[in-house]
Amino acid sequence: MRTTINQVKAMKQKGEMIAMLTAYDYMTAKIVDAAGVPLILVGDSLGMVILGYESTIPVTIDDMIHHTKAVVRGSKNAMVIGDLPFMSYHINAEQALTNSARFIQEGGAQAVKLEGGVNVADKVKRIVDCGIPVMGHIGLTPQSINQLGGHRIQGKDIETAKKLLADAKALKEAGAFAVVLETVPASLAKLISKNISIPTIGIGAGAGCDGQVQVVSDILGLFTDFVPKHTKQYARIAESMSKAVSEYYEEVKSGLFPTEAQSFTMDESIIDELKK
Ligand code: KIV
After folding, report:
1. Cα 221 → chain centroid
2. How many structural domains comprise the chain?
3. What is the 166 CA–ligand 1 centroid distance (Å)?
4. Which domain, by its residues, includes 160?
5. 31 alpha carbon to ligand 1 midpoint, in Å?
6. Per-residue pLDDT for 3 more than 90?
7. Ligand 1, closest atom to CA 180?
8. How far is the CA of 24 from the centre of ligand 1 (A)?
9. How far apart are CA 59 and CA 62, in angstroms?
10. Do 174 and 253 sit in the same domain of this protein?
11. What is the number of the ligand 1 atom nearest to the C-alpha of 56?
């Protein structure tokens, strides 16, 4: 049985910290799920870390569904949350509903995530009313990077801090089961977390949130184009991969690979027959 939204909400009530990690493929999802992480986000960050784009903006709904299917196949216990990409929910509630349904029906996800607060509350309500759990995402919302003017900390002055609090409340009122707070000062994230009844999941929002989310390739030291300040590298997988690939390349060139251990045998009399 996968993690349910009621379990996630209960974790906040009990003061249990909620861990979420991204995954974009079968083998990573298997590892994250086996570790017991209750929430897996198929984030549109896959645009940068998997597809090599400069931002999340070029990511399409088809890209997202493709990766969601793989993550669902690789996991058994975690709730899989599909991230609605840029412009897949902004046009109207019908579009938001149709694309959310694709994540659930085609992708096999249990919930969707979308960016925005007051401005998307009507869509959140429509999606939730149709029985699809929604996670909100406010603060630094990467799909609006051009409007925000870069990867800046959000909510540092009274106006923007008030707006973030209003956004969080609007998402709760619209029926969201949790909300991601990205790149928000720790004290503001703590205040928002205390002022809404649904869990807040922080990324670069300090320890006062009800849970934390990170991009899996960041914490594994696998994606090294840039290392965000909010990340802690628990491994240096890119370095290990690089070393292994160089070693393989050298061994192929020098004839050290393959050995008998990686080869197959047959009745040598057949070879002798062939040589006649
Ligand atoms: O796309 C993503 O990975 C995200 C997380 C950073 C929350 O939205």
Report:
1. 16
2. 2
3. 21
4. 5-236
5. 19
6. yes
7. 7
8. 11
9. 8
10. no
11. 1
Q: What is the pTM of this model?
A: 0.97
Q: What is the model's pLDDT at position 149?
A: 87
* 58-99 residue pLDDT tens: 999 999 999 999 999 999 999 999 999 999 999 999 999 999
- List, for residues 110-138, the tens digit of each pLDDT value: 999 999 999 999 999 999 999 999 999 99
Nearest CA to ligand 1 atom 3: 43
Smallest CA-to-CA distance from 24 within 16, 34, 14, 32 is with 32
Atom of ligand 1 nearest to the CA of 142: 8
Strand extents, DSSP E, the chain? 18-22, 39-42, 79-83, 111-113, 134-139, 178-182, 200-203, 211-214
Reading the block at residue 11, the tokens are 């974790």
Residue 172 and residue 98 in one domain: yes
User: Are 35 and 88 contained in the same domain?
Assistant: yes
Length of the chain: 276
148-191 pLDDT per residue, tens? 988 889 999 999 999 999 999 999 999 999 999 999 999 999 99
Please tell me the predicted confidence (pLDDT) of residue 25: 98
Residues having CB closer than 6 A to ligand 1 are 22, 41, 43-45, 83, 137, 180, 203, 213, 215
| Residue to mutate, 21, 39, 44, ligand 1, most ligand atoms under 8 Å from C-beta | 44
141-150, 164-173, 243-252: least confidently modelled range? 141-150
Q: Which residues contact 87 (CB under 8 A, 6 or more apart)?
A: none
